[in-house]
Specification:
The structure holds two protein chains of two kinds. Chain A is an all-beta fold. Chain A has no helices and nine strands. Chain B is about 0% helix and about 55% strand. The chains are: A mainly beta, B mainly beta. Chains A and B meet through strand 3 and strand 4 of A and strand 5, strand 9 and strand 10 of B.
Chain lengths: ~110, ~110
């Protein structure tokens, strides 16, 4: 399983764009990059998943460079309710299988 | 997306008693479910993989006789913490997949052993 590295914490203000970068140098050819969000005392919630280039949904965008050794989760115009821990995971093609969670990034959004 | 439901959301029990936590896939069938444990300010740690109709697979360091897992149907897996002690107090989370590469997580169960 590819190991991921991301910042421990980030601070932002309401209305700003937040970019969280994750490195996964050992990603395999068939692996996908997946991001989850977790609020205190709740289970993780799927945000976005991608394989290469750019993926966008109603919540976030995911940018993946050509070498796929890193990825960036972009949250546009964050609000206080976006304060949470964000996990970057690498998932095999055969399915989510066993997910290995790193420490995640604690995003604190202030007024 | 698919829904995974855990019950109860929180439970308090006395030392030495057993507690059962249920994990249900509400709108899909899951041949495999996963159980995680999360201590305060730490990440999720996989405890075991629950397989429908067969024995669960436990991660290294997880006592299978203490954390009993039963996956009797395609929509239900249960985790029983036997002879609970205060150090078992934690946040327990289950997850399941609906066939794709996305995992769906339950809302978690806060266990407090007093």
């Amino acid at each position: 399983l590819a190991k991921t590295t991301q910042p421990i914490s980030m601070d932002s203000y309401e209305g700003q764009e937040v970019n969280i970068t994750c490195s996964h140098n050992n990603i395999a050819t068939n692996d996908y990059i997946t991001w989850y969000q977790q609020f205190p005392s709740q289970g993780p919630r799927f945000i976005i998943q991608g394989y290469k280039t750019k993926v966008t949904n109603e919540v976030a965008s995911l940018f993946i460079p050509a070498d796929r050794k890193s990825s960036t989760l972009s949250l546009p115009r964050v609000s206080l309710s976006d304060t949470a821990v964000y996990y970057c995971l690498v998932v095999g093609e055969s399915g989510y299988s066993t997910l290995t969670f790193g420490k995640g990034t604690m995003l604190l959004v202030s007024p | 997306g698919a829904v995974v439901s855990q019950h109860p959301s929180w439970v308090i029990c006395k030392s030495g008693t057993s507690v059962k936590i249920e994990c249900r896939s509400l709108d899909f069938q899951a041949t495999t479910m996963f159980w995680y444990r999360q201590f305060p300010k730490q990440s999720l740690m996989l405890m075991a993989t629950s397989n429908e109709g067969s024995k669960a697979t436990y991660e290294q360091g997880v006592e299978k006789d203490k954390f009993l897992i039963n996956h009797a149907s395609l929509t239900l897996s249960t985790l029983t913490v036997t002879s609970a002690h205060p150090e078992d107090s934690s946040f327990y989370i289950c997850s399941a997949g609906a066939g794709g590469t996305e995992a769906f997580f339950g809302q978690g169960t806060r266990l407090t052993v007093v």
